[in-house]
């Protein structure tokens, strides 16, 4: 019986430690998402080229390639997207190309992934604020 209680106590302690680590990481992730800011990059003055950018918010990560030609975004490729349940946000790329701006609405149900993808695109463009 004593061994049983010791095993339960050890399991509770381990669960508490992992729970604390998870809550710390979750809080850090939330702060990163809330702290995302976007640059006001004028696409019209960005030189032609292919630009790579990424943003890592811990639980969500995106890496993109952005092609600019004649002052327009012609292509955005999502090279990597660690997203949890935010895969729906990947369609935001088409909207950014269509609207020629990063300032598009987030995908409902995938708001945080949308913000991370948008920030990766922002980071790819010359003249952006890398934050």
Structure annotation, total helices? 3
> What share of residues are in beta strands?
15-25%
Number of strands: 3
- Which outline best applies? elongated
Order of helices and strands: HEEEHH
Per CATH, the class of the domain at 43-124 reads Alpha Beta
As laid out across the biggest beta sheet, the strand order is: 1-2-3
Taking the sheet with the most strands, its summary is: 3 strands, antiparallel
How much helicity do the residues have?
Answer: 40-55%
Radius of gyration: 20 Å
Terminal-residue CA separation: 55 Å
Task: Report the average pLDDT across residues.
Answer: 87
Structural class: alpha+beta
Provide the CATH architecture of the domain at 43-124: Alpha-Beta Complex
Instruction: Pick out the low-confidence regions.
Output: none
In the CATH hierarchy, the third-tier topology of the domain at 43-124 is known as Sufe protein. Chain: A
Organism: Oxobacter pfennigii
Keywords: Membrane, Transmembrane, Transmembrane helix
GO cellular component, one term: membrane
Transmembrane segments: 6-23
Q: What's this model, at a glance?
A:
The protein is 42% helix and 21% strand.
Describe this structure in words.
This protein has 131 residues and is of the alpha+beta class. It has a domain at 43-124: Sufe protein. Chain: A. It is built from 3 helices and 3 strands, in the order H-E-E-E-H-H. It has helices spanning 2-34, 92-99, 111-124; strands spanning 49-56, 61-69, 72-82. A 3-stranded antiparallel sheet has the order 1-2-3. Strand 2 (61-69) and strand 3 (72-82) form a beta hairpin. It is elongated, with a radius of gyration of 20 Å. The mean pLDDT is 87.
